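Run: sequence + pyridoxal-5'-phosphate -> complex structure.
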Amino acid sequence: MSPEEFRKAGHQVVDWLADYLADPSKYPVLSRNRPGQLIDALPSSAPETGEAWSTIFADFERLIIPAVTHWNHPGFMAYFPTTSSPPGILGEMLAAGLNTNGILWKSSPAVTELEQVSLGWLRQWIGLPDEWFGIIFDTASTGTMHALAAARQFAAPEVRATGQSVPLTVYCSEQAHSSVEKGALAIGIGQSNVRKIPTDCVFRMDPAALERAIEEDVRAGKKPIAIVPTVGTTATASIDPVRACRAIADRYGAWLHVDLAYAGSAAILPEYRWLMDGVELADSMVTNPHKWLITPVDLSATYTRRPEVFRAAFSLVPEYLRTAEDPRALNYMEYGVPLGRRFRSLKLWFILRTYGRERLAAFIRDQIAWAQELAKQIEEHPNFEIAAPQAFSLICLRYKGSDDENRAILDRVNSTGEIFLSHAALNGRYVIRIAIGNLGTGRRHVQRAWELIRHAAGVR
Ligand code: PLP
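>> structure
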């Protein structure tokens, strides 16, 4: 592509994106493709000679778009939505254009220093103490895996040199995200050494059960290395008792990592600051601007008050990457597995500056209010019930009927193309989840979801 061709194609793409973002609901939220349809529609090998941009872009619209599930759609209320935003997209475009790789500070000072600045700003907004060190990973799953490796370094430093000899154990609740278990698997903890602690009637980790499990493991000759409470669990957004977990972690010399992947963004609201209570006593935490802070996937922020432990776990500097020591020239490669580093912080910096804390807080505040309003309507309806205490922008509900009936309601709603919801299992029962988090979602979309659910259940 010549610079002129690039300019023309670039304008076309930005125009397309502007139209798309103005109304993603012109598409069905959930792709209607059947499995394999896109693969079958595309040539089985790449072209020998290059093709015209106009042909390629036409195929993008004709073949790729129907295979897209629209996460930007205002009716996307499944999982935890991750919405894009114009400044975030511009940040992605410029980062790809510059294609700078922050392997070291000197390989692009902007990559390193803007990450420090933007994560510093976010840290202040959510109320973490100044000495906490931030690092961007692609996802919370990767951040938590790194935190578990740091935990192992902290509790069993000999493992770095010699590998694991004593069984090490990790604790989370039975409501924790699967990323905790996966992270433990990835670093060789062993699935049977990840203990899933029972929760109380509102899905919070039971600290007494946690302590019993730890004692049992210690008696069996195992070494507890980490406790991972969640603030805002995936199924219900419940909140584990972080302070109690801290006290227990201290008694056994274990690391405390708090998973705030979803709910952490709400801490930018003064009235939700309480959710960070005790987090300042943890060793590390993770939160995802790519969940609830309108940042295009991927951008997850891991923070730690013990960066030296992350460094002790991961620093390995071959000669060809050696640079002069300078306390202000941070090399992020020493704090985790990746060497190559995308310029992710650019999109976050654009977003934080474009909206400011007040507008981002207003966006989250509105969504919480719509969720609370809907929860009340559900509670008052004779045929439905709230399946878990309503929290943040998440609602778990059930039609007062069988699991099969609830499943059928969800399928009917999702087949409309207007709204996409997901489900969870609570106490062995099927529940429907409504998670609000998109830039384009308004109160009317939330109310429309409720209307479609009632319609699918055949009630008014
Ligand atoms: N933690 C919680 C509580 C989550 O809900 C999720 C995803 O929904 C994750 C971690 C994993 O996030 P990621 O997709 O960034 O790995």
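>> summary
The chain has a mean pLDDT of 97. The longest helix spans residues 345-380.
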